[in-house]
């Protein structure tokens, strides 16, 4: 039984690659989804956020006003620290719960996370799989997908660890600067190997 962490920079193709694993029957947990789930209405984390920032941090329907929270933590580093101290352990606990072996039947499960290597989430995984493309491809694909300016995407890339650092920590790398059918072949080969190695 193994947890394989799948990571890569913005627009590198994590979602695309994880869907290909999914077609082979592989189960995955998405750290971004979990980060949203732990602050849904009624959760202890959302109650703590409301107690700290006041009702202004909620939308009229009681859900978290993410845009406002982003703005506050962007402007006030102390508030960012407070929020990270609250949420990181909660997210980690929920990831551990969802990654429990009873929840999947293959010898391995994927943890998809853009911040696997930037946070302590890498301590949860047995194997690190990086989806890699050149920075220029990352920029072009993200701009095309999100309608963002080059400067916006460059800022996000600059805030993540570098391509070299990320690849140096990888146990395996998927080169996603290729047609999708070639990438699919890499995914199938890795899956076959993981089934043996982690079986
Ligand atoms: P984010 O970190 O922003 O969530 P991501 O790493 O999940 O991004 P994707 O959304 O999978 O990246 O891919 C980024 C864009 O590039 C998407 O529009 C996707 O369709 C496209 N894309 C992914 N892989 C390929 C490929 N091999 N060839 C062409 N386009 C691709």
From TrEMBL:
Role this protein plays: Catalyzes the phosphorylation of the 3'-hydroxyl group of dephosphocoenzyme A to form coenzyme A.
Subcellular location: Cytoplasm
Class of the enzyme per the UniProt entry, highest EC level: transferase
The protein's name in its UniProt record: Dephospho-CoA kinase
A biological process term (GO) from this entry: coenzyme A biosynthetic process
Lineage of the species this protein comes from: Bacteria, Pseudomonadati, Pseudomonadota, Gammaproteobacteria, Pseudomonadales
Species in which this protein is naturally found: Marinobacter salinexigens
UniProt record similarity statement: Belongs to the CoaE family.
Reaction equations catalysed: 3'-dephospho-CoA + ATP = ADP + CoA + H(+)
């Amino acid at each position: 039984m193994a947890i394989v962490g799948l990571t890569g920079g913005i627009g590198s193709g994590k979602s695309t690659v994880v869907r290909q694993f999914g077609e082979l029957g592989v189960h995955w947990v998405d750290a971004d989804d979990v980060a949203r789930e732990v602050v849904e209405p009624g959760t202890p984390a959302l109650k703590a956020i409301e107690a700290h920032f006041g009702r202004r941090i909620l939308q009229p329907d009681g859900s978290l006003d993410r845009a406002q929270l982003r703005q506050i933590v962007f402007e006030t580093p102390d508030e960012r620290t407070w929020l990270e101290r609250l949420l990181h352990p909660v997210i980690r606990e929920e990831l551990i719960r969802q990654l429990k072996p009873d929840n999947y039947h293959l010898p391995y499960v994927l943890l998809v996370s853009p911040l696997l290597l930037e946070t302590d989430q890498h301590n949860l995984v047995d194997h690190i799989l990086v989806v890699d493309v050149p920075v220029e491809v990352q920029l072009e694909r993200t701009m095309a997908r999100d309608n963002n300016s080059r400067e916006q995407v460059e800022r996000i890339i600059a805030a993540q660890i570098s391509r070299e650092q990320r690849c140096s920590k990888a146990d395996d790398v998927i080169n996603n600067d290729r047609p999708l059918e070639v990438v699919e072949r890499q995914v199938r080969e890795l899956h076959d190997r993981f089934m043996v190695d982690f079986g």
